[in-house]
Amino acid sequence: VPIDKALRLLDGITESAAMRDLVLNLLRKVKEGKSLAEAMEMYPTVFSKMYVNIIRAGEEGGILDELLPDLAEFLETSAKTRQQVISAMIYPVVLLATGIISVFLLLVFVVPQFAAMFEDAGSEIPPSAAFLLSLSTFLQSYGFLIVLFFVLLVFAWRRLDKDPATRVQKDGFLLSLPLLGTLILYKECAVFARTLGALLGAGIPLIRALRVSREVVANAVLTAHLQQVEEDVRGGAGLGISLEKTNQFPTLLHQLVAVGEESGRTSEILLKSAATFDTYVRNQMSALVSALQPALIIFLAIAVGGITITMLSAVFSMN
């Protein structure tokens, strides 16, 4: 099926109005004489550089029909891994939010009612209850400042990405964190290996594939190391040796890449390495979430139960 007819068929079967407009715009650009890759390149928010480069390689080599199914599988695998990580974090986040909101409501609306009771009784308030009453008064008067502080903290954290120097420092700090840093490293290695493997499998030259793969890595520290890897490879060094030279990437990655270079199966081994790193991230996330859920439940029980028991004990001691 010719490319223009294929796009016209896509226009007829898609239900999304935005997708229909996109397909029609691509069809118009193709009819004007542009290649499909050039047309897609005009929509960077929809089609990534890796996507466009694979389309361009397929058009140049006349194998677009062979590369598109591999590209679809690549995107599905990436989306599935990302969705699994997000799904694993939904329950702990909801649990933590429930705990914080419960404690806040208790301190702001429930605890102040005990203050009037203690004043009417004229008895001495136990120190623990007095602390909770003071905390409640503070939250009622200045609680908005706490919310404002966290909003400013999130804003300042995002502002760090604006300046390249501060972004490198932030990303380096994240990589140095125990457990979380390893998860970030393996996640980025999976993205890099999968992208590079897909590009090499599409017949794109190694230097060009490295440049595109570097741009899809989010961590600035790893991006700088990959830039050095690209320069070393351009100078004639092997990819596996160049990755090992950075002393930043997992041993498994550069060893498997070196084996792939020797056997002429670099693309295949990179894709399998990406699957291995994805599996590691999923397993570690599952273990972390499994440990986090009971910890959050215990935290919620201690916080809510502690406030309740403290105030009730004060009432009983008063009586």
Topology:
Elements (H helix, E strand, L loop, with lengths): L2 H11 L3 H15 L4 H6 L7 H13 L2 H58 L5 H33 L4 H13 L3 H22 L4 H10 L4 H15 L4 H8 L4 H13 L2 H53 L1
Query: What's the overall average pLDDT, rounded?
Result: 85
Give the overall form: elongated
Unreliable sequence segments: none
Instruction: Kindly report how far apart the N and C termini lie.
Output: 87 Å
> What is the makeup of the main sheet?
none
State Rg. Answer: 28 Å
Residue share in β-strands: under 5%
Helix content: over 70%
Task: Give me the number of helical elements.
Answer: 13
Walk me through what this model shows.
By secondary structure, the protein is an all-alpha fold. The chain is built from 13 helices and no strands. It has helices spanning 3-13, 17-31, 36-41, 49-61, 64-121, 127-159, 164-176, 180-201, 206-215, 220-234, 239-246, 251-263, 266-318. It is elongated and about 90 Å long. The N and C termini lie far apart (87 Å).
